[in-house]
Every structure is written in C-alpha cells, then in structure tokens.
C-alpha cells in the first residue's frame, strides 16, 4: 500500500491547501466536493497520512477536509498526525516558502533553521559558558552536555524570536532579543538512528549576569546546568568521560567575539 503524505498547514489559505492535495494525488482536487468524489473510489489502495500543523489557529478548510476523510473511515487507510511545521532554508540562509512537518524534515534530512544561545560570564580572567545537560528523555544525545539553550525555528517565526523563546522554555530565563549578540551562522549535520538533522544555526551570545538559583529547567529537555571555563572546556572535550555534543566551532566563535 502506497503512502500519500499530505501537509495540512493551519497558516495556509484555502487555495494553497487544496493545491497541496492536488499535488499529492495527481488529481484536480479543488474543494471538498471534488475531494469527496475522489475518496468514493472503491479501488483506492492508498494509506493517507495527513500531517496537521500544531498551531492553535482555527482553519475551516482543514476542518472540512478532515470531515471528508472521516466519512470514509474504514474504507480507506488514513492517519491524522499533528506535528510542528518548520520552514526550510537554503545554503545562503534565506528562508524558503515551503514548510514541512518536523518529523519528515528529520527523516529526509532537509536543511532547516535553528538557534543556539550561549550564556557567558567573565570571572577571574577566564570566560565561562553555561552548559546544559540534556535530559535522559531526549531522543538525540541524551545526558550529554550541550549549548546553554537551543531549538528549531518553527514556521512564521524569526531567528532572534526563536532564541528568546527557547531560552525561556528551557531555562526559565526571560531575556530581551536586544540583549543577544549575533555571532554568525553555522551549518551542522549529524545522524542519530532514523534522524538525519541538517541545520543552519543562528548563533547568539548573551552576556548579562544571571542568577543560577532563579533558573527553572524544563524537565523534558534539561537535567541540570553548570559553568565551564571555555579554554578548559576545549581542552577537555577529547576526554571520553566528558560526554558532550558541543560544537567546537561555536566555542571559537565565542572566543573571537570576546577577545
């Protein structure tokens, strides 16, 4: 049975949503009636996977499409999958108009935008970075030391806004986008099991003092945090006992910015 993957984006207009269905079915599906006529075909041997974007906005077009599919429950194979949609990006750091479910972006290895926020402080002639220890619940790099805060840029969101949001979600630290120093873009690729992650990251530096005791860690993401002197960190990253997924190039970006 062939899979037909249809993206139902809550941020898209009616014409664009039906154009997506037409593209994936190779038929002239333009409204609920033409979709209904298509699904009446008893000879369909397809498994429909309907990926619905996770925004809270209502979308009457998507509601009517799901209602049509439900009419034929039992006659066709159909899964409704709610998932965050990510914009895709090109090598020149330009956001593309296409948005795609996050789970499929990671399956297919599509290039997509992400953010890294490094929280730093100067102390005793050294520069320290705040590291988070990733939760053991994470599918990728569980219990590894990593950047202070990080995450993907969902559709309709800008890099800097995503950086502010991720910092608050993961650490409970409310910051202003104006307090983030942009260090540059960094491309990263890695595979872990069935996940093929190809990112272009916007890397930011946050220099303002923070109170460690006031941090509220996101349990599903972060196990703990600690400070590490940047040169000692670089020297110790080859030690197998220090389990980490830290990107050396970003540490050099920090050093270049501070010194």
Summarize the structure in words.
The chain is of the alpha/beta class and 259 residues long. The strands form three sheets. Strands 6, 7, 8, 9, 10, 11 and 12 form a seven-stranded mixed β-sheet that branches. It has helices at residues 14-25, 32-39, 60-71, 102-108, 159-171, 230-236, 248-258, and strands at 2-8, 46-53, 77-83, 85-89, 95-101, 111-123, 126-134, 145-146, 149-152, 180-192, 195-206, 222-229. The chain is elongated and about 75 Å long. The model has no long low-confidence stretch (mean pLDDT 93). It contains seven helices and twelve strands.
Summarize the SSE layout with pairings.
Blueprint: E1 2-8, H1 14-25, H2 32-39, E2 46-53, H3 60-71, E3 77-83, E4 85-89, E5 95-101, H4 102-108, E6 111-123, E7 126-134, E8 145-146, E9 149-152, H5 159-171, E10 180-192, E11 195-206, E12 222-229, H6 230-236, H7 248-258
Parallel strand pairs: 1-2, 2-3, 6-11
Antiparallel strand pairs: 4-5, 6-7, 6-9, 7-8, 7-12, 10-11
């Amino acid at each position: 049975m062939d899979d037909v993957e249809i993206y139902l984006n809550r941020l898209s207009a009616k014409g664009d949503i039906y154009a997506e269905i037409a593209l994936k079915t190779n038929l002239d599906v333009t409204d609920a009636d033409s979709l209904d006529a298509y699904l009446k075909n008893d000879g369909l041997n397809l498994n429909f996977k309907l990926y619905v974007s996770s925004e809270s906005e209502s979308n009457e077009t998507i509601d009517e499409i799901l209602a049509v599919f439900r009419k034929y429950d039992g006659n066709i194979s159909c899964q409704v999958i709610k998932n965050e949609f990510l914009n895709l990006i090109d090598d020149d750091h330009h956001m593309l108009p296409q948005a795609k479910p996050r789970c499929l972006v990671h399956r297919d290895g599509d290039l997509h935008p992400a953010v890294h926020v490094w929280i730093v402080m100067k102390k005793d002639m050294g520069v320290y970075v705040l590291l988070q220890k990733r939760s053991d619940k994470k599918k990728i790099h569980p219990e590894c030391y990593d950047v202070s805060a990080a995450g993907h840029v969902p559709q309709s969101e800008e890099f800097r806004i995503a950086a502010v949001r991720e910092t608050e979600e993961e650490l409970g630290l409310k910051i202003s986008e104006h307090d983030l120093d942009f260090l540059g873009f960094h491309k990263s690729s890695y595979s872990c099991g069935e996940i093929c992650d190809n990112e272009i990251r916007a890397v930011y530096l946050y220099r303002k003092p923070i109170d460690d005791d006031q941090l509220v860690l996101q349990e599903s993401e972060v196990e703990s945090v600690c400070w590490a002197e940047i040169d000692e960190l670089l020297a110790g990253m080859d030690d197998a006992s220090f389990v980490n997924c830290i990107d050396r190039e970003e540490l050099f970006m920090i050093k270049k910015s501070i010194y």
